[in-house]
Amino acid sequence: MGISAQEIEGLVECQRAFFRSGATRKEAFRREGLVRLGDAIKGNLDVIYEALWEDLRKPPFEAFTSEIAMLVAEIEIQRKPETKDIGPILPRPPMEALQ
Predict the structure, then answer these.
(1) Which residue ranges make up each domain of the chain?
(2) Taking a C-beta distance cutoff of 8 angstroms, is the pair 63, 49 a contact?
């Protein structure tokens, strides 16, 4: 049994409303997302290795060095509180204001 088109539309609308609420602009929300992403990668390495083997024929060492290590390192850098790159996202001015 799959999910109906109506259920998908409802889920999409919920996600849009959440995004429009501004919750994703907060630094704490984005840092927590990075924590969860890093944990998900680390917790699913076997699945990731298998997928990279099946799709790209990359053995585990190559998969780790070319696909996983840099991503995990960047996540760890951005997670640190002293990292300024991840500050709050400010709303952009409307295009009319730029003319």
Answers:
(1) 44-79
(2) yes
Contact of 41 with 72, CB cutoff 8 Å: yes
Residue 66 structure tokens:
């070319």
Place of tokens 């990668």: 41
Instruction: Please report the sign of the dihedral spanned by the C-alpha atoms of residue 73, residue 19, residue 32, residue 39.
Output: negative
3-class secondary structure, 81: coil
**Contact between residue 68 and residue 45 where contact means Cβ atoms under 8 Å apart:** yes
The pTM assigned to this predicted structure is: 0.67
Average pLDDT over residues 64-75: 92
List pLDDT tens digits, range 30-67.
889 999 999 999 999 999 999 999 999 999 999 999 99
Above pLDDT 90, what percent of the chain?
Answer: 62
Closest CA to 52 of 44, 40, 43, 60: 60
At which residue do the structure tokens 């995990």 appear? 72
